[in-house]
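Protocol step 4 of 6: structure prediction from sequence.
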Amino acid sequence: MQVIDDPQRATRLARAILSDVMTYHPEKVRLGIERDDLFARLAPELREARTYFASRVTADVAAKTNAFDRALVDVMVFRSAGVSSRIW
């Protein structure tokens, strides 16, 4: 498996990985948004996702793009905007 060194591909990979987390753990995501503990509630899943991302992307591209953290907000938080929460 080739390591990704293209920033756009790294961003797409991060978004796909986090979309999978949302798909497989929708209730945890919903509760995490509602109770403002999303990152703690999904800590094991996010740790596994981040590790997988890091194994597929060069460290340089991961650091320069911050793709995983950006995707975390774009995919998990933004897509959950319809969930009732005290944080918005």
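Step 5 (inspection) to follow. The chain has a mean pLDDT of 94.
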